[in-house]
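hey can u check if this looks right to u? its 112 residues, i copy pasted from the old doc so theres a chance i mangled smth
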Amino acid sequence: MSSDRLPTDIWIQAHLRRLGQDAIPAYVVRKGDPRAGLLILKLNLGPEGCRVLSQSRDLDGALAWLPAKGGEVLAEAEADAYIARAVQRDPDLWVVEIEDREGRHPFEGKVL
């Protein structure tokens, strides 16, 4: 991690506070490496299902998000299984679940 970036734990907590101010429920489901762990977002859309986004970088090095399964809405069990497999591959991952029917989140970066 370069020295100009916030540690992951502080970066996530700042965004969770922002969600709280907007009255959007959000939870840290899994803590990863506090300094350099990557983040997976589970966007819980309610009865419709969930979308899963994995933190990434675009070709210019800017923060971006990779949607799981082509961005389709997944059943919650399928989203949880996807996340479990990702955590097995990278135990430093953080997982944050956000409950918002519109799938909004405060994290910067475009969806690829």
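The helical segments are 8-21, 76-89.
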